[in-house]
């Protein structure tokens, strides 16, 4: 099972409902340009792209 499928399965077992959707770039979706800008800024942070996320990372409650 692919890692993403495994994470989604584990989340579902904990009662989370995760839906993935493809959003094509530059398709006049409100906020798309802001998202592109933030993604580009994030790439400049120097965080290794092979950083692994665990299910605990994904399901961690949002900090206030």
Automatic annotation (TrEMBL):
Coiled-coil zones: none
Protein origin, superkingdom: Eukaryota
Pfam families linked: RNase_H
GO molecular function, one term: RNA-DNA hybrid ribonuclease activity
Domain (RNase H type-1) ranges: 1-44
InterPro entries: RNaseH-like_sf, RNaseH_domain, RNaseH_sf
Name of the protein this chain belongs to: RNase H type-1 domain-containing protein
């Amino acid at each position: 099972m692919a890692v993403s499928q495994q994470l989604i399965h584990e989340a579902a077992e904990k009662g989370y409902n995760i839906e993935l959707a493809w959003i094509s770039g530059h398709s006049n979706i409100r906020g798309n340009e802001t998202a592109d800008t933030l993604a580009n800024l994030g790439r400049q942070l120097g965080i290794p792209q092979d950083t692994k996320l665990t299910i605990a990372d994904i399901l961690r409650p949002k900090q206030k």
